[in-house]
Amino acid sequence: MDEMKINEIDTSTVGGRIKYLRKQSGMSQEQLGWALGLEGKSVIYGYESNRRGLSGDILIELARILCTTPEYIMDGTASAEEDQYILAAITLMKEMKTDKAKKAALEHIRLVTMMEE
After folding, report:
1. Is 31 helix (H, G, I), strand (E, B) or coil?
2. What is the total count of domains within the chain?
3. Does 66 share its domain with 88?
4. In terms of domains, do 72 and 95 share one?
5. What is the pLDDT of the chain when averaged over all its residues?
6. C-alpha dist (Å) from residue 7 to 4, 28, 46, 47, 56
7. Which residue has the higher pLDDT, 82 or 19?
8. Which DSSP string corresponds to 60-117?
9. Rounded to an integer, what distance in angstroms lies between the CA atom of residue 4 and that of residue 48?
10. Residues 27, 28, 33, CA angle at the centre, nearest 5°?
11. What is the pLDDT of residues 19-43, one digit of tens each?
């Protein structure tokens, strides 16, 4: 992913924040559309270009998929505790089906933490 292109996205609008988060997650407009249960990329283009408004249900699902909060998408605010990597880890952990998988993931995080010291 070309970091310069992501950094050039205007995140002062709802659409810009959606585009920024989508690109940061490595998804195409079409992939995001399918993840939301929408047909094709034209709806996502409408959101990203601020030509189409978001319903509450779509906003919540979009925030979940893009590992952020509805508040960040709508007004660009995020609390100090909100970190994209932590939110992504939480989302992934919630999707794990067994305690064994969750314990293994947690152990990997602990190992990485020890490597940083």
Report:
1. helix
2. 2
3. no
4. no
5. 86
6. 5, 17, 21, 19, 28
7. 19
8. HHHHHHTTS-HHHHHH----TT--HHHHHHHHHHHH--SHHHHHHHHHHHHHHHHHH-
9. 19
10. 95
11. 999 998 889 999 999 999 987 788 9
Residue 46: CB partners within 8 Å, gap ≥ 6? 52
Cα(111)–Cα(105) distance, integer angstroms: 10
Same domain as 29, residue 70: yes
Domain holding 60, by residue range, is 1-78
The alpha carbon dihedral of 12, 13, 15, 21 has a sign of positive
CA gap 57, 45 in Å, rounded = 18
Question: Measured on CA atoms in the order 56, 62, 63, 68, is the torsion positive or negative?
Answer: negative
Nearest to 58 by CA among 35, 78, 77, 42: 35
pTM exceeding the 0.90 threshold for the entire prediction = no
